[in-house]
Amino acid sequence: MIVILGTGGTIAGTARTASDGVGYTAAQLRVEDLLAAVPALAAQRLEAHQVAQLDSKDMDFATWQRLASAVHQHLARPEVAGVVITHGTDTLEETAYFLHRVLAPAKPVVLTAAMRPATALAPDGPQNLFDAVQVAAAPGAAGVVVAIAGRVHDAVQVRKTHSYRVDAFESSDGALVARVEEGVVRPLGRWPAGAALGLERVATDVEHWPRVEMVFNHAGADGRMVRALLDAGVDGLVAAGTGNGTLSTSLDAALREAQARGVRVVRSTRCDAGPVMDLPGLLPAAGALSPVKARVELILALLAR
Fold it and tell me: Are 114 and 123 in contact (CB under 8 A)?
């Protein structure tokens, strides 16, 4: 049995005309409607539940809590081989990383999405959903992955790198977990694994979750944004630096001021790929995590306090 959890997104979106691929409204169809559009799945044992119904640009902590709890409960059922989550593309990589760190499941959890609404002339959602179910049912599959456009990415590496193409996602260091070819899953690397932080880490009322914001290094970055966030009561800051996490002198000084006042600071990079080195004398580095994933990691670290 594969459990499908719906959260909305473009895959469940509709437009007034079939030729409109951008002027649509996300999160209009329920997960049962998405399954009905994929007759090839009729022979598989599936169970569908609607966890949320939103555009993923509006993803929030409360939905993350509900989703993590639902995934955990379903995976604990012995008859469930895996879980598929339909999601919007905008924050998919953040949700995937959050689930990976909190649950680190031994069974597969496969997030999938679409770049075109369900009403498009050639929607990509049905194929992606079909592929995701095949990945969730594949022998040996494990961990949190993203299945989209025939490729399977792990939750740590996956990034949305294009605003429009149907193959909008890439693995930051190029290492795919698998490919899906005509319904057949062809493994290419290791399935994600790790130590789960556990649901108790995120059980706190979301109103009391730490506030972690991001700032970018850019030409003319002077640190005033950091000081404004300090005045607003921020708990953590992720700096998306240039290159190998480099920061302007003024931005670096402002971040060190924040650190001295008890705010956790981490350096990432605004580059599409590559790690940030943790070197002596520099602010702490996020390693290979993108800025948005470094933010998730920092939130989880602060919740431990």
Answer: yes
Q: pLDDT tens digits for the chain (305 residues)? A: 999 999 999 999 999 999 888 889 999 999 999 999 999 999 999 999 999 999 999 999 999 999 999 999 999 999 999 999 999 999 999 999 999 999 999 999 999 999 999 999 999 999 999 999 999 999 999 999 999 999 999 999 999 999 999 999 999 888 899 999 999 999 999 999 999 999 999 999 999 999 999 999 999 999 999 999 999 999 999 999 999 999 999 999 999 999 999 999 999 999 999 999 999 999 999 999 999 999 999 999 999 98
Q: How many residues does the chain have?
A: 305
* Alpha-helical regions (H) of the chain: 31-36, 61-75, 92-103, 125-137, 224-231, 249-260, 291-303
Top CATH class of 2-187 equals alpha beta
Token readout for 191 is 């399935």
Task: Write the DSSP symbol of residue 295.
Answer: H
What does residue 130 show for φ and ψ, rounded to 5 degrees?
-60, -45
Delimit the CATH 3.40.50.1170 region(s) of the chain: 2-187
Query: b/e string for 114-131 if b means 16 or more Cβ within 10 A?
Result: bbbbbbbeebbbbbbbbb
* Fold for the domain defined by 211-303: Rossmann fold (3.40.50)
Please identify every residue annotated as catalytic. Answer: 89
- Residues 242/216, Cβ–Cβ less than 8 Å: no
Contact between 146 and 92 (Cβ < 8 Å):
yes
56: amino acid identity, one letter: S
